[in-house]
Amino acid sequence: GGGELNFGYATLKAAAKEGYVFYRWTEEGKVLSTAESFNYLLYKPTTIMAEYVPATYALSIGYNENLGNVSGAANGTYEYGTEMTLRAVPNSGYTFAGWKIDGVEQESTDATLSLVIKKATSIEALFEKTIINLLMGDVNSNERVSVTDISITVSYIMNENPLNFVFVKGD
User: Fold this and answer.
1) CA–CA dist 87, 115 (Å, integer)
2) 3-state helix/strand/coil string of the chain
3) How far apart are CA 73 and CA 59, in angstroms?
4) What pLDDT score was predicted for residue 130?
5) How far is residue 8's CA from residue 139's CA, in Å, rounded to a whole number?
6) pLDDT values of the chain reduced to their tens digit, one per residue, 171 residues
7) Of the N and C termini of the chain, which has fewer Cβ atoms inside 10 Å?
C-alpha cells in the first residue's frame, strides 16, 4: 500500500501477497526493521519501502534406487511458482506403478509428472516388479499346440523381458 501520514508515530504493517514473504523495511536504502510490523517516528517527508522476496519451499523426492530413478529435479528448496516436470524411469525388470504426493497415491500412472511449487511437497515414485503372464498353448491359432507355439512364446519372452520370466507348470 501507500499513503500520506501526519508527523508523529505510525505503525507500519507488511502484508505479503501469495508466493512472497516479507523481508524488511527500508528508508533511502537504510534498513529500518526486519519485523513485519513496527512503530516509526515520522518527523520528515520520506519514502519507506516494504521489501518482499519469493517464498521458498522444500521438495522431497523419494524412490527405491534398486527399482528405478526420477529425473527432472532433486531434493531441495525451490521458489514459489517454480515449474518442473519429473520423469520416473524404471530399472530393467521393473515398471512404474504411480506417484504419491504428500502421502496420497495419485490415480494417474503416467511416468511424467508436472507440478508447480506452492508449498512444501513430498513426492514418491512407486515401482513394481514386471510380471509377464503367458499361457502356453495354441499361440499361432492353427488349432494344435506344437513346438512352433512354444518357440513363439519363448521368443516373445526373450525379446520383451529377457531377465525376468518365470515358467509356471500348470495342471
Assistant:
1) 11
2) CCCCCCCEEEEEECCCCCCEEEEEEEECCEEEECCCEEEEEECCCCCEEEEEEECEEEEEEECCCCCEEEECCCCEEEECCCEEEEEEEECCCEEEEEEEECCEECCCCCCEEEEECCCCEEEEEEEEECCCCCCCCCCCCCCCCCHHHHHHHHHHHHHHCCCCCCCCCCC
3) 9
4) 87
5) 92
6) 566 667 889 899 999 999 999 999 999 999 999 999 999 998 888 899 999 999 999 999 999 999 999 999 999 999 999 999 999 999 999 999 999 999 999 999 999 999 999 999 999 999 999 876 555 565 556 666 666 656 555 555 555 544 444 555 555
7) C
Give the contacts of 6 (CB within 8 A, at least 6 positions apart).
Answer: 42
For residue 22, which of 10, 37, 42 has the smallest C-alpha distance? 37
Among 74, 68, 5, residue whose Cα is nearest residue 42: 5
Q: Per the structure block, which three cell numbers stand in for 26? A: 527500508
The answer to whether residues 64 and 128 touch, using CB atoms and an 8 Å cutoff, is no
Tell me which amino acid residue 169 is: K
**Could you tell me which residues come within 8 angstroms of residue 9 by beta carbon, excluding any fewer than 6 positions away?**
39, 40, 41, 42
